[in-house]
Design goal:
The structure holds three protein chains of three kinds.
Chain A lengths: L36 E2 L3 E6 L14 H7 L7 E3 L5 E3 L2 E6 L5 E6 L13 H12 L14 E8 L2 E6 L33 E7 L3 E6 L13 E6 L3 H10 L4 E2 L4 H7 L4 E6 L2 E7 L9 H10 L2 H9 L4 E2 L25 H10 L7 E7 L3 H16 L3 E7 L1 H10 L5 E7 L25 H12 L3 H17 L3 E6 L1 E6 L3 E2 L15 E3 L1
Parallel strand pairs in A: 2-11, 16-17, 16-18
Antiparallel strand pairs in A: 1-22, 3-4, 5-6, 6-8, 7-8, 9-10, 10-11, 12-20, 13-20, 14-18, 14-19, 15-19, 21-22
Chain B lengths: L1 H6 L1 H24 L32 H37 L1 H15 L3 H12 L3 H28 L2 H8 L4 H37 L11 H9 L6 H29 L1
Helix pairs in contact in B: 2-3, 2-10, 3-4, 3-6, 3-8, 3-10, 4-6, 5-6, 6-8, 8-9, 8-10, 9-10
Chain C lengths: L1 H27 L4 H6 L5 H10 L6 H13 L5 E8 L2 E4 H36 L3 H16 L2 H15 L15 H35 L2 H8 L4 H38 L5 H10 L3 H29 L7
Antiparallel strand pairs in C: 1-2
Helix pairs in contact in C: 1-12, 5-8, 5-10, 6-8, 7-8, 7-10, 8-10, 10-11, 10-12, 11-12
The chains are: A alpha+beta, B mainly alpha, C mainly alpha.
Chain lengths: 511, 270, 319
């Protein structure tokens, strides 16, 4: 048994994300000053929970993966725009039938132990993650991989048994030295810009510069110290004292408090927050009722109350930062609420006097609790009598997510890198379809997605899916909250990604 | 001391009575009317310091804190009443039977009572609520269970003291039914002692309920409770201290008034 | 001696009942620790593997006896959630051993504060003939008893942390790192816990002193013309302190309970925070041992109080 974390993120419902990538631009933020970047120095980054392991194929917590991004690399990795770029592999090609991937390895890439990466290492890493070694797949999408063959010492061929244009995103899976699998947890060795130094439970993890990193000029820092700080008050104290220089996922109240003493960088997060409906229960199985709720919600006001107005308002399940796949549907219900229209629809659906609605909320997420309070108040204006049922996160997981025994819930899904991640769960038979969404049109379009051979084709279909989901009001999508990062005035070069990572390789001290 | 008891009890009784009366009045009024809606939000009114329009100020959602405190007093009052009611009645039933009859049942019951008593009541409630889920009724049940043992002890003690007193022995000799003896002969005589422990229990119930909702496991948002208001307010202590002071001082007021009243009652008896 | 055996038997039975109760509770509480650990995206194969690793695939009764026999052999089990290093989970004994000193120090500081302040106040109060002082002390102690610990914590944070800036809220320092800094932080939560106890103890001491003052031997001494001060300090206080000692014993149990809430307010990583977070993360091995531990401490303290009481007051032995 390896190890675990004690608390999830303060504000998000963390579902897994490797590093995520997709077409579209991620916001990147350079320090305001144009001061010169310098090499060297140590930075302390505050993190909110303990890590759940160091084996890159086995960890599941998003909060761990965003740190391991600095230690490990796959054949490909994503850049801050969300595009896939070569990492351990220099380039790849895909066969015409979409089943065979051929990767050419980049020359001179070295592991932290000094050995050069070989085709054997790549074969071993992919086979381990795909479950070809012992039958236990560790990275779900790689299940369709049937063989990994070494063509020559610089070329590896991967064969899948079905077409999935999004499979390429799974080749961000970490490449580790041949046979090192079971040792990775204690002594992780990868090819990333930083190497592992030490880990102390409940205190943190220290990484240091990889002098042999293949990208010349990176990283700037000599050492990065990820320090676990579980309470907001403690984080504020340390930030003000300067003992912590970087702290992501600030709450609104914390951001206001710290603004005067350091930079607060803001960019959209990768979390899609919604009032999710259980589409299988009365009266939410009636689309008219669901639409009425969507009309009743004033999402701009919600963002003002809970996110300081910094959230991005959305109406369907896609991150606006994934530009090639996102379609703006905010006109469907408007963003300021329309109580008259909501009442009209409720009357039409046979609920002229409204109805009782229970909203189950994981109580450890203050952000969701606050949102729920605003939602209850807004629904009241439309005659819907909503009540909050606050439950512990573990109860939420089993009652809402696994057993689907609830009426509605407010939470957020943390997007993966794959564009279909947020949409594939609403196909009626999906195991992850915790809202019991069932729509024949949606399923039909989704069947085409599976058939589609290119990402371009899929993109068009994904936009169609978002539209169906929004118009049918599968759930009331609310916002993509902002990720606010406290960042020392002496630092520069922080980059936001449209995926869940803390890339420290580009961070530097300014002169 | 005798002189005291003719002169002083009125002060406790009077002050306690007035303080308690105000609480009672506010909680009854809150059932029908509050100055503002306790849940209505307004972005424009966030974090307003106390003023004539909002005498306790407004909170992070722009809600009127005084209206929320009023509602919270009401629910705290009702919950504590139920807790004391349930544990008091259970205490009388269990305590009277075990105290009067004694024997093996008494020994067994007292073991259980000791076990529960030996456990911090807030922890016990924490475990019970993890089991039953959150919400008002479950808070009442959890605290009801936690508070019963102390009542059992008091009632049992009084019954043991009185069961061998002359008038009860006489009643027994006259062949009075046991139920009659228990509830018509002994019970009325323990009320003076019992009443004081009811007031103390009421105090503790208010404190325990606010403690639970402070830890986030009591009454659920957006319903206002003094404890949950305090825990929300803690994050804004630096910028909006009034937010924490209003519910905090209200708890102190409630507990103090009940304490004064019980002190007054016990002095008046002497 | 039979008394001692009887009490020990009670302790064991209570602990056994408690352990079963907690175990059964964890069977009923919703929430599966495996999904909680792995999140929603793990493959079913991994979930099965973890379930087997934690022994959760066995029937409940078997699991209980396995756990209980471990405890009897002195093996308190391992946490589901906290790791020692990447390949081993944290043994519960070690985890609690790490957090326990924090809570114990907190309890110790609060108790010291209580004793140091309550006794002089109580004595002064009992001895005073000044009506105004009597009234002031009456109101002060009454009020201090009415303030819940967590609100006191907030008040202390506001007054000392934000207004006076004598300490930094949230700036907890581990006792292992810097004991001086640890004390200068812990003194403030200790104040929050101590204030109501000071009120209680002072009132109690005052009442027991007044009771003693009215007793026959004092009247006799007075009539013999013994100086009133020397009566108070030589005889009365010695007798009046006896019930106070036992009263303080009971307060220890309450201080432990109070620290649970106050640890939340001051974000102190002690037993209380560990317990609350372990209940919510369904870390059964930790919760079970913690609850047994607290129960045991409370029962033993009550037991010691009882013994002292018997030694001090021979009349009770009759029962």
């Amino acid at each position: 048994m390896k190890k675990l974390f004690t608390t999830f993120f303060a504000t998000i419902l963390a579902m897994t994300a490797l590093c995520g990538c997709a077409g579209g631009t991620g916001a990147s933020s350079e320090a305001k000053t144009s001061n010169k970047a310098t090499y060297g120095g140590t930075v302390v980054v505050g993190i909110q929970q303990d890590i759940d392991g160091l084996d890159p194929h086995k960890v599941t917590a998003a909060g761990t993966k965003e740190i391991l991004f600095n230690i490990f690399e796959g054949l490909v990795k994503c850049d801050s725009n969300g595009d896939l770029v070569g990492a351990v592999a220099e380039e790849y090609s895909l066969s015409d039938d979409g089943l065979v991937y051929t990767f050419t390895l980049r020359p001179g890439v070295k592991f932290h132990n000094g050995n050069e990466v070989t085709a054997e290492d790549v074969k071993y890493s992919l086979e381990r993650a795909a479950g070809l070694l012992d039958g236990t797949p560790l990275v779900s999408p790689l299940k369709i991989v049937t063989a990994v063959d070494i063509v020559d010492e610089k070329t590896v061929r991967v064969t899948a048994d079905s077409v999935n244009p999004e499979l390429i995103y799974s080749f961000t899976t970490a490449i580790i030295p041949y046979g090192s699998g079971e040792d990775e947890n204690a002594d992780p060795i990868g090819t990333g810009p930083f190497r592992f130094v030490s880990y102390t439970p409940q205190e943190g993890i220290v990484i240091a510069k990889n002098e042999d990193y293949w990208q010349k000029g990176l990283p700037y820092l000599d050492e990065v110290d990820f320090k676990i700080i579980t309470s907001a008050e403690t984080a504020l104290v340390e930030l003000k004292a300067g003992t912590v220089q970087v702290y992501p996922y600030l709450t609104d109240a914390m951001a206001t408090e710290i603004e005067s003493s350091m930079q607060v960088l803001v960019a959209p997060s990768v979390n899609v927050q919604a009032l999710f409906f259980n589409n299988a229960v009365e009266p939410l199985n009636n689309p008219t009722v669901r639409q009425a709720i969507c009309y009743a919600l004033n999402r701009e006001a919600i963002s003002d109350f809970v996110a300081g107005g910094d959230a991005t308002i959305i109406s369907s399940a896609m991150l606006p930062t994934l530009e090639s796949y996102y379609v703006d549907l905010n006109d469907t219900y408007g963003t300021q609420g329309n109580v008259e229209k909501a009442k009209e629809l409720l009357a039409e659906a046979g609920y002229p006097d409204g109805f009782d609605l229970t909203i189950t909320v994981p109580s450890n997420y203050e952000f969701h609790m606050d949102t729920a309070q605003v939602v209850v108040e807004q629904l009241k204006a439309a005659g819907i009598n909503a009540t909050i049922d606050a439950v512990e996160w573990e109860t939420w997981l089993s009652d809402v997510y696994t057993d689907r025994n609830y009426q509605s819930t407010i939470c957020a899904i943390t997007s993966d890198m794959t564009p279909g991640y947020l949409l594939n769960r609403f196909e009626s038979t999906s195991k992850k379809n915790f809202i019991n969404y069932s729509n024949a049109d949606y399923d039909a379009v989704y069947a085409n997605v599976v058939e589609a051979k290119s990402l371009g084709e899929r993109g068009i279909l994904y936009k169609e899916l978002q539209k169906i989901l929004a118009e049918d009001a599968g759930s009331a999508f609310l916002q993509v909250p902002a990720n606010k990062v406290a960042f020392s005035n002496q630092l520069g070069g922080y980059k936001f990604y449209p995926v869940y990572v803390q890339d420290m390789s580009t961070v530097y001290y300014v002169k | 001391m005798k002189k005291d008891s003719t002169k002083n009890p009125n002060i406790y009784l009077l002050v306690g009575g007035i303080m308690c009366g105000l609480i009672l009045l506010l909680s009854i009024v809150s059932l029908f009317w509050t100055p503002y809606s306790p849940t209505e939000m307004s972005a424009a009114l966030r974090f307003k310091a106390p003023s004539f329009a909002h005498i306790f100020g407004t909170d992070n959602f722009g809600r009127d804190i005084f209206s929320r405190v009023m509602k919270a007093i009401g629910s705290s009052f009702v919950i504590s009443l139920f807790v004391v009611g349930i544990s008091g009645i259970l205490g009388i039933l269990i305590g009277s039977v075990t105290g009067y009859f004694g024997g093996i049942v008494d020994t067994l019951v007292m073991r259980v009572v000791d076990a529960i008593n030996g456990f911090p009541s807030i922890l016990l409630a924490l475990v019970v609520i993890s089991l039953l889920g959150k919400g008002k009724q479950n808070v009442v049940i959890a605290l009801g269970i936690a508070f019963t043992p102390s009542f059992v002890r008091i009632v049992r003690g009084e019954f043991i003291r009185l069961r061998d007193s002359d008038y009860i022995i006489r009643a027994r000799l006259m062949g009075t039914k046991k139920i009659r003896i228990l509830f018509l002969h002994i019970l009325p005589n323990i009320f003076s002692t019992f009443w004081v422990s009811v007031m103390i229990g009421f105090n503790n119930a208010i404190l325990a309920e606010s403690g639970l909702s402070y830890l986030g496991i009591g009454v659920q948002a957006p319903d206002a409770t003094l404890g949950s208001m305090l825990s929300d307010a803690q994050g804004y202590l630096n910028s909006s201290p009034w937010y924490a002071l209003a519910p905090g001082l209200t708890i102190v007021w409630m507990v103090l008034s009940a304490a004064m009243l019980s002190e007054g009652i016990s002095r008046a008896k002497k | 001696m039979t008394y001692f055996i009887k009490k020990t038997a009670t302790l064991i039975i209570t602990l056994f009942m408690m352990s079963v109760l907690v175990f059964v509770s964890f069977q009923i509480i919703p929430g599966d620790v495996v999904t909680a650990i792995l999140g929603t995206e793990a493959t079913p194969e991994r979930e099965e593997a973890l379930r087997a690793e934690l022994g959760l695939d066995k029937p409940p009764v078997e699991r209980y006896f396995r756990w209980a026999s471990g405890v009897l052999r002195g093996d308190l089990g391992e946490s589901y959630r906290y790791s020692k290093n990447m390949n081993e989970m944290m043994p519960v004994a070690e985890l609690i051993g790490d957090k326990l000193p924090v809570t114990l120090w907190l309890a110790f500081f609060s108790l010291m504060l209580t004793i140091l302040l309550a006794i002089p106040i109580g004595v002064l109060w009992a001895g005073t003939k000044n009506k105004a002082l009597d009234a002031i002390l009456n109101v002060l102690t009454q009020t201090s008893m009415a303030i819940p610990a967590f609100f006191l914590g907030i008040l202390v944070t506001y007054l000392f942390g934000i207004v006076l800036k004598v300490f930094t809220p949230g700036g907890y320092v581990s006792y292992k790192k810097d004991f001086g800094a640890f004390i200068s932080y812990m003194i403030f939560p200790a104040i929050a816990i101590a204030i109501p106890k000071i009120g209680m103890t002072a009132r109690f001491l005052r009442n027991s002193t007044l009771t003693e003052l009215r007793s026959d031997y004092v009247r006799t001494a007075k009539s013999k013309g013994v100086d009133e001060k020397s009566i108070l300090f030589k005889h009365v206080l010695r007798n009046a302190m006896l019930p106070v000692v036992t009263f303080l014993g009971m307060i220890i149990a309450e201080v432990v309970a109070g620290s649970i809430v106050v640890e939340q307010v001051f974000s102190i990583p002690g037993i209380g925070r560990l317990l609350i977070s372990s209940i919510s993360t369904r870390d059964f091995p930790v919760v079970e041992i913690l609850i047994l531990y607290i129960t045991m401490v409370v029962i033993i303290v009550y037991f010691i109080v009882d013994v002292i009481y018997r030694i001090l007051d021979p009349r009770i032995r009759v029962e």
